Amino acid sequence: MEEQIEMVGRAFVDHYYHLFDHDRSALGSLYQPSSMLSFEGQKILGVEDISAKFKQLPFDQCLHVISTVDLQPSAVAGGIVVFVSGSLQLQGEDHPLRFSEAFHLIPTGQGSYFLQNDIFRLNYG
Amino acid sequence: MEEQIEMVGRAFVDHYYHLFDHDRSALGSLYQPSSMLSFEGQKILGVEDISAKFKQLPFDQCLHVISTVDLQPSAVAGGIVVFVSGSLQLQGEDHPLRFSEAFHLIPTGQGSYFLQNDIFRLNYG
Question: Cβ B75–A123 below 8 Å, yes or no?
């Protein structure tokens, strides 16, 4: 159980930020109609609007570097709560931005997972 | 629904950090035997061990100042995913520490809520 969570959770984190940095338009495949993204305080519901948000972000190239990953079993069977901290380097910016992000990963029933909850915040100060 | 989440979520955040800063020994009442706390990477399961962890923290007085609160409905009926960022002032320290914390709040069925998941991280860098 614990090993399964570690394996799935870490593979998800690698996959998510790899897609974000290299093929952002494919990120929408990780969400479902019930999914919610909170991006710097803006709440966005459902695959289409979430995909549109990623598309509209005001930078093209970026690189996420992960500092910490915390994983816990969730109250949903097979679900995983994921908490990530790291830094985000935007093209043309001198300094990376620190961020934290929380996810709730839920099994689709077809052997994969989707993101029910995704909350992203830059860390200021 | 949205209003309920805002009301409950914000009341929870106020309550949690008020207890933490003024009556830390009472924090255990917010957890159940299935609850998990990840504190700076250390995983702790269940009310007793979580209460013991809070008791053992190497500072007496502290003050949390909240910067942002993000709330989302969870996949569990009535559940709420909570994401908080803020700063933590420890007694005798010159500078506050930045932190982020994610919670999964679940209804007890008796009109209140408990914390199934709690993940705390200081933000460095």
Answer: no
CATH of the domain at B65: 3.10.450.50
The DSSP secondary-structure symbol of A100 reads E
* pLDDT tens by residue, A40-71: 999 999 999 999 999 999 998 999 999 999 99
Minimum distance, in Å, between the CA of residue A76 and any CA atom of chain B: 7
Token pair recorded at residue A52: 């549109």
Three-state DSSP class for residue B14: helix
User: Min CA distance, B58 vs chain A (Å)?
Assistant: 22
In sequence order, which residues have a C-beta less than 8 Å from that of residue A96 and are 6 or more positions away? A65, A87, A88, A89
Q: What single string gives the DSSP state of each residue in B69-121? A: EEEEE-SSTT-EEEEEEEEEEETT-SSPEEEEEEEEEEE-SSS-EEEEEEEEE
Mean pLDDT of chain B: 95
Number of domains in chain A: 1
Which residue is closest to A116 within chain B, CA to CA? Answer: B75
**Chain B residues with CB inside 8 Å of A43's CB?**
72
The ipTM estimated for the assembled molecules is 0.95
Contact A102 B98 (CB under 8 A): no
A75 touches chain B (CB under 8 A): yes
Contact A26/B at CB under 8 A: no
Structural domain harbouring B60: 2-122
What contacts A125, CB < 8 A, 6 or more positions away?
A: B67, B87, B98
